[in-house]
Amino acid sequence: MSVAKGLEGVVALTSEISSIVDGVLSYRGINIDELADNANFEEVMFLLWNGRLPKQDELDQLKKQLGASAELPPEVLEQLKAFPKDIHPMAALRTAVSALGMYDAEADDNSHEANQRKAISLAAKLPTIVAALFRLEKGLEPVSPRPEYSHAENFVYMLHGKEPDETAVKAIDKALILHADHELNASTFASRVTTATLSDMYSAITTAIGTLKGPLHGGANERVMAMLEEEIVTLDQVEPVIQRKLDNKEKIMGFGHRVYKDGDPRAKHLKEMSRQLSESTGDRKWYEMSMKVNELVEAKKGLKPNVDFYSASTYAYLGIPRKLFTPIFAISRVTGWTAHVLEQYADNRLIRPRAEYTGPVNQSYLPIEKR
Ligand SMILES: CC(=O)SCCNC(=O)CCNC(=O)[C@H](O)C(C)(C)COP(=O)(O)OP(=O)(O)OC[C@H]1O[C@@H](n2cnc3c(N)ncnc32)[C@H](O)[C@@H]1OP(=O)(O)O
Ligand SMILES: O=C([O-])CC(=O)C(=O)O
């Protein structure tokens, strides 16, 4: 047996959902750049779930279904209220999604129709959960979703409890498009492993949230902001802090990628969003600091920013606290996860690789008094 550590380069399955070819990311064959510049998130949801862009009546229907599914079961809302106030929202989100499964009578119905409904229901409810967690931590009552709002509008509305700001809505909508799917990343793979045992969609998405939470994956965006806010603090500290980190062989969060060696195609969109927000808010600090970090890490280490790097300053400009950065990633990626769950069920085989055993051999059982 030969081992590819971290499964690097291993092609584990076939998929028709998204592809990374020569550094170009496409959803269902459409370049992400085109989607980021032209589509809205609901169109991308439909595209990922159904393999093609929606016609107007199909888009209207999806929006209606999302609107009708966004409210949480009262029992789950009560659970959110009982969670410890200082819990990380990714831990709370993971637990809340698991709880949702207990209040869905069809949780274990793995028919395509039931799973399509669950995919819409989960995608609709994640923003409601994240916004409720945000408000509860601040001692505020959660705000109910409004069915007439778009996905991004609803999220911004439920965070602040007032008419959503257009700039924030546009930025969130684009960020959701950019994060929606990414071939066989760790959380998607985890969701497919769970699905392949013929477990239910709630279990698969709970698995995925737990996997996205880690700092080498989705959790990096929060750490980028922690580095900017707490370690670097001022522009003149970028160079000494980055140099110290590199000398100590610390990873710089938001840089490097297992697949992209010549840059993540999503990063340029987030960088531009961060630049535009720095201008419209008149606060250039986070953007300038990010640019300088980017310049240094590229020059000294040859590493380029990934999707997590400029999403941090973008969200910071929108006034979003860094604890919510990874949950926002989940609000988007649930679309990709559920598309992969549907694809896995459609042509399933248990996912069970092998391990090369490197431990001791020919050992004997010693009775406890002789050890
Ligand atoms: C949405 C996403 O999940 S995007 C990724 C988000 N994660 C991060 O931003 C965390 C920081 N980045 C990393 O840890 C890595 O680049 C990963 C996890 C993304 C990819 O990891 P891998 O493909 O396993 O690369 P690996 O960790 O083996 O790194 C290869 C070499 O580059 C170095 N390296 C990779 N990323 C970084 C980084 N961000 N900062 C400093 N050095 C790095 C490693 O130290 C290693 O150096 P060495 O060969 O001298 O030991
Ligand atoms: O593909 C990966 O390994 C990580 C990533 O960029 C993502 O999940 O968006």
TrEMBL record:
It catalyses: oxaloacetate + acetyl-CoA + H2O = citrate + CoA + H(+). Pathway: Carbohydrate metabolism; tricarboxylic acid cycle; isocitrate from oxaloacetate: step 1/2. The active site is at residues 257, 308. The keyword Repeat does not apply. GO terms for molecular function: citrate synthase activity. GO terms for biological process: carbohydrate metabolic process; tricarboxylic acid cycle. SUPFAM superfamilies: Citrate synthase. The keyword Metal-binding does not apply. Gene3D superfamilies: Citrate Synthase, domain 1, Cytochrome P450-Terp, domain 2. Keywords: Transferase, Tricarboxylic acid cycle. GO terms for cellular component: cytosol. InterPro entries: 2-MeCitrate/Citrate_synth_II, Citrate_synth-like_lrg_a-sub, Citrate_synth-like_sm_a-sub, Citrate_synthase, Citrate_synthase_AS, Citrate_synthase_bac-typ, Citrate_synthase_sf. Belongs to the citrate synthase family. This is Citrate synthase. It comes from Melghirimyces thermohalophilus. The lineage of its organism: Bacteria, Bacillati, Bacillota, Bacilli, Bacillales.
